[in-house]
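re: ur question from yesterday

yeah so i grabbed the chain u mentioned. its 255 aa long if i counted rite. heres the sequnce exactly as i have it in my notes:
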Amino acid sequence: LRAEGEIRPWERRPVGDGGIGDGAGGQPGDGGVGGTGAPGDMGAMPRGDDSALDPAMRDLVAALRKDPQVLATLAGQRDTVVNRILREAEGDLAGGRYFDAENKYRHVLTLVPDYPPASLGLVHAQLGAGMVKSAATNLRQLFEDHPEMIAVRYDAKLLPHAKRVEWIRDQLMNHIDTSERLTDAALLLAYLGYQFNTPKLVQYGLDVTEARTPQDPLLPVLQRLWLPQPDKQGDADKQRQPNEHRTPSAPAPAQ
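ran it thru and got these structure tokens back, copy pasting raw so excuse formatting
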């Protein structure tokens, strides 16, 4: 339950910022979803250098690092129509009824447009339903409009089932291999890696995104919040220089 005075992620906003990409400036894992291991190298911008971020975004990144959240529900405590629908949608997600959940989250968005909990639930429902293109597009839109949601993790009941996630992973990898235009598939793959504690999957997804769209304004924030940061200057010195891109290698499938 939400403690009195606790700030929900979507109640945080970078001061003076309308989102990412609209003038604002710019745990161990390996293999498939749920594996273990160490992350690879980073992108064009050194992870430890936050000075390149817009000041408001830099403050937000610092705040999210200090207070990461894991949410067990997207619904509030009050007995409202919206919260009741959100709870019903969560029951559908947990029961594998992804299309039903998707319809309920869309219903909430007709009642409260641009409501981050419903937008996030919609992405998870679309993932479970196999609507990976829609999920990828909507995830990017959510993060650009509400960057305060980027670092949040969610209870397993708010995500597709583990077996389903393996299938989703394969679908995303196929999209990445067959269509260079669908760059948001790589972003969605990195998001799955972050939610399921698989840094090599995060690394691969962000590397693909960077290789195809190096000026993506989300990248500097995702790299700082979704990947372990170097502890020493020597670690940062090992990172690639700007504009030095390599072909990302896909992580091995989960066993």
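noticed a couple things. Residues 162-178 form the longest helix (17 residues). also The two ends are 36 Å apart (CA to CA).
anyway ttyl
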